[in-house]
Design brief:
Helices cover 29% and strands 25% of the residues. The protein contains twelve helices and 15 strands. It has helices at 2-8, 45-55, 81-88, 107-114, 125-131, 133-141, 171-182, 191-197, 228-231, 246-255, 267-275, 301-306, and strands at 22-27, 30-36, 64-69, 92-97, 119-121, 145-152, 157-160, 186-190, 213-217, 236-239, 260-263, 281-286, 294-296, 309-317, 320-327. Strand 1 (22-27) and strand 2 form a beta hairpin. Helix 3 packs parallel to helix 4 (107-114). The protein starts with a helix and ends in a 6-residue tail after the last strand. The relative contact order is 0.13.
């Protein structure tokens, strides 16, 4: 199952709104094949693993399938995985996590057992849940996880009034930011960020199979018509309501199958999200540079803790130090 979780990662940033899923086939105590959901519309993990076994000259008949998520039992972009497993003749299916999607929930396991294929559920379930966190959150709440990324200088400033707009973090940090973008369905900024930075807000590493939706909070219709993100042909959503409509905005995005949104705006936008208690995780990126004419971010550990976040771990992105905060889980929940 550990290997199935590992290969599932190969679909990261490419399969949403579907979850990351991995599958490993074992026969005679040996791994004979593995598969993962690689891209939206592509083979599911179980189907790829069966295909992989046959391509390697192995029969999946009599194999044990280790799958990170309960196999689907409905027709979507691909046929049901339960049918593929039954057709392949697997003798047992071991599942990490139940699929909370109402179209699947428990039905895949039930169908397999009715067909005489023993199943078990729960092996490395916590690890599988972390792998699929945005998907599971969306299934439960029907709105996206809100991730915030904010870069500051050595003294907590977000920008330098004395200079033209520009990046002040290292290339290695930029690469990590693009990896984060690739794992999100949408990126949100306020109109001030568009006016000041004229950003693209796209993924520009590797060969991304999709680009995130760009969301701009612009209640007074101040977004320049010649802004790069309005002229590059990509998908943009202009939000002309006030910040008071943030919870409804998240519900609206959830209805569009947006499961994780990255807020990359300035302090005004970020503080509004924090004040409304809408932030689920926060990456505070600190550079060693110092701005000559600083603009304080106003972001401190006390501010983040007041918003319901707690320090999770510390990371290194290129030359920058990163503090990662996550939403505190209530024991009374």
């Amino acid at each position: 199952m550990e290997r199935a979780l590992l290969v599932a990662e190969r679909g990261r940033g490419q399969v949403s709104p579907n979850p990351l899923v991995g599958c490993v086939l074992v026969k005679d105590s040996k791994v004979i094949a593995e598969g993962w959901h690689d891209h939206l519309g592509g083979l599911h993990a179980e189907q790829m693993a069966i295909h992989d076994a046959e391509a390697k000259g192995h029969s999946p008949n009599g194999a044990v399938a280790y799958v990170t998520l309960e196999p689907c039992n409905h027709f979507g972009r691909t046929p049901p995985c339960t049918e593929a497993l039954m057709w392949a003749g697997v003798q047992e299916v071991i599942i990490a996590h139940e699929d909370p999607n109402p179209t699947v929930r428990g039905k895949g396991q039930h169908v397999l057992e009715n067909a005489g294929i023993p199943t078990s559920m729960g092996l490395m379930a916590d690890e599988a849940a972390e792998l699929m966190r945005p998907f599971l959150h969306w299934c439960e709440h029907r709105k996206p996880i809100v991730t915030v990324k904010l870069a500051v200088d050595a003294k907590g400033s977000v920008d330098d009034r004395s200079l033209d707009a520009g990046r002040f973090t290292s290339p290695g940090c930029l690469e990590k930011v693009h990896e984060l973008r690739q794992d999100c369905d949408a990126i949100l900024v306020g109109v001030e960020t568009v006016i000041r930075d004229d950003p693209l807000l796209t993924v520009r590493i590797g060969q991304p199979k999709r680009q995130p939706l760009r969301v701009i909070i612009d209640p007074n219709e101040r977004c320049p018509q010649n802004a790069q993100l309005l002229t590059d042909g990509g998908e943009v959503m202009l939000v002309q309501s006030s910040f008071a409509g943030l919870p409804s905005l998240l519900n609206q995005l959830g209805d569009q199958n947006i499961q994780r949104i990255l807020v990359e705006g300035g302090p005004t936008t970020i503080h509004k999200f924090l004040d409304e208690g809408l932030v689920d995780e926060f990456y505070l990126v600190q550079s060693t540079q110092e701005h000559g004419s600083p603009i304080p971010s106003g972001i401190t550990s006390d501010v983040l803790e007041k918003a319901g976040l707690i320090a999770s771990n510390e990371l290194v992105w290129g030359e920058e130090h990163v503090e990662h905060y996550i939403r505190k889980i209530s024991l009374d929940a």
